[in-house]
Amino acid sequence: MVHSMILDLSDINWKKYLTAEEFNEVRTSKQKELVGLPSEVEDYIESLKKSTDSVALKTQLTED
């Protein structure tokens, strides 16, 4: 059986349950390097940010 958990380490309540050493181990264990998005995707996201309202955004999303 395998269990997986996602911990929000910005939640200070975890400090009630983990020692400083355990907290640091969880925070630094198996860190994944984030991969950058292709420039086309970044450009598309930036173009979506220029929409001034929900109607304009919906129009842009349905056109692309």
Name some characteristics of this structure.
mainly alpha
Which term fits the overall shape? elongated
End-to-end CA span: 43 Å
Number of helices: 3
Q: What percentage of the residues does DSSP assign to strands (E)?
A: under 5%
What is the radius of gyration? 20 Å
State the major sheet.
none
Going by helix content, strand content and strand pairing, the class is mainly alpha
Percent helix, as a range, is: 40-55%
Give the helices and strands as they follow along the chain. HHH
- Mean pLDDT value: 88
Number of strands: 0
Low-pLDDT ranges? none
Q: What does it look like?
A:
This protein is 47% helix and 0% strand. By secondary structure, the chain is mostly helical. The longest helix is centred in the last third of the chain and has 11 residues, at 39-49.
